[in-house]
Design brief:
The structure is a single chain. This protein has five helices and seven strands, in the order E-H-H-H-E-E-E-H-E-H-E-E. Helix 1 packs antiparallel against helix 3. A seven-stranded mixed beta sheet has the order 1-2-3-4-5-7-6, sandwiched between helices. The protein is globular. It has a domain of about 120 residues: Gcn5-related N-acetyltransferase (GNAT) (Aminopeptidase). By secondary structure, the protein is of the alpha+beta class.
């Protein structure tokens, strides 16, 4: 199925943690579609736990792109906990700025990839943030995804494997607002 509109024509809606009951299944379904070839991986199968973990935070922010009434992608995250900025261990010296938004997840269904949807979702999620910095993790097995984030102003500052069954991730950091 070919998309009906361009990324610019998508309806991007904003949500908070109070909306989680309404959007939870949408996030799970889009994630399953976006990672259909990788859903046999136990780490990817735990995605509903991550949705609940991040979505349960009071500062949770989510954007979902719709083509008509069909969700085609999403991005979400939440402010980091002050004093628990785990990414600082990768920098010496660490930036003086400290308020950090943790960009947890981005997923776009295959029919909508390479059309600017990821950037549109990322910029919509980051607009009007009052944090100084944004941090995210990118699977090191996906260098093109890392390069995409770099084109938006992120830089790799280290590597991390936060769970025993997770991939090794590139730790990426950017100043807000994004350039």
């Amino acid at each position: 199925m070919e998309p009906r509109v361009t990324a610019a024509g998508l309806n991007v809606r904003h949500f908070t943690h109070t909306d989680l009951p309404e959007i939870r299944q949408t996030l799970i379904d889009v994630h399953a579609d976006a990672l259909a070839d990788e859903m046999d991986d136990p780490f990817n199968q735990r995605f509903p736990w991550f949705v609940d973990h991040w979505g349960g935070r009071p500062g949770f922010a989510c954007v979902i792109a719709y083509d008509g009434d069909k969700a085609v992608g999403f991005a979400y995250g939440a402010p980091g906990s002050p004093g628990h900025e785990w990414w600082r261990e990768h920098l010496d010296p660490a930036p003086e700025k400290h308020r950090t938004f943790s960009y947890s997840e981005l997923a776009v269904i295959p029919a909508w990839r390479k059309q600017g949807v990821s950037e549109r979702l990322t910029r919509a999620l980051m607009e009007d943030r009052d944090e100084d910095l944004v941090v995210l993790l990118v699977d090191t097995e996906h260098p093109r995804v890392q390069a995409l984030y770099e084109s938006w102003g992120f830089r790799k500052v280290g590597k991390d494997q936060p769970f025993p069954d997770s991939p090794v991730f590139a730790v990426m950091l950017a100043e807000l607002p994004l350039s």
